[in-house]
Write a structure and sequence with these properties.
mainly beta, globular, 150 residues
Length: 150
């Protein structure tokens, strides 16, 4: 009974976080369209939403890439924001797109009351990448943004 009440309280906090449009999904794993999953550094692999701006970044602490942190950084404006609440399952699905310097990306993010988050990114090609991790407030996140690609 106590656990159920705690999950309901966590769901309420999550509601505030998502509606503020100010959060970061720090990824513990990245997964490609074939299901292959690799562990990653959360501070370099993230999706950041800050009001009308968004950042998608992949990175590695062992390589140098286009963005200076072993991957790609895409930053731009957020459009078509939609939130779906699942009261029974205590989770949210947030859909939006980001128009960046390297293309337009559709993002579908699912976040549970336990703060586990999954976001799948697709663009104009058949490729798809999924971030799996946890949601944090912008102020509590320790992400490091690399250089914008291109």
């Amino acid at each position: 009974m106590v656990r159920k009440a705690q999950r309901a309280a966590d769901f309420s906090v999550l509601d505030s976080l998502i509606n503020s449009r100010s959060f970061v999904l720090e990824a513990d794993f990245l997964q490609n369209k074939y299901g292959y999953m690799v562990p990653v550094v959360p501070t370099l692999n993230f999706i950041k939403v800050d009001d009308t701006k968004g950042i998608l970044q992949t990175g590695s602490d062992t390589r140098v890439g286009y963005n200076g942190v072993g991957g790609v950084t895409a930053e731009g404006n957020i459009g078509s924001w939609k939130i779906y609440k699942d009261y029974k399952g205590l989770r949210y699905t947030v859909s939006f797109n980001i128009l960046t310097n390297i293309g337009n990306f559709d993002v579908t993010m699912t976040v549970g009351a336990d703060n586990n988050a999954t976001a799948t990114i697709s663009g104009t090609t058949s490729g798809r990448l999924t971030w799996r991790g946890h949601l944090k407030t912008v102020n509590n996140s320790r992400v490091f943004k690399g250089y914008n690609t291109i």
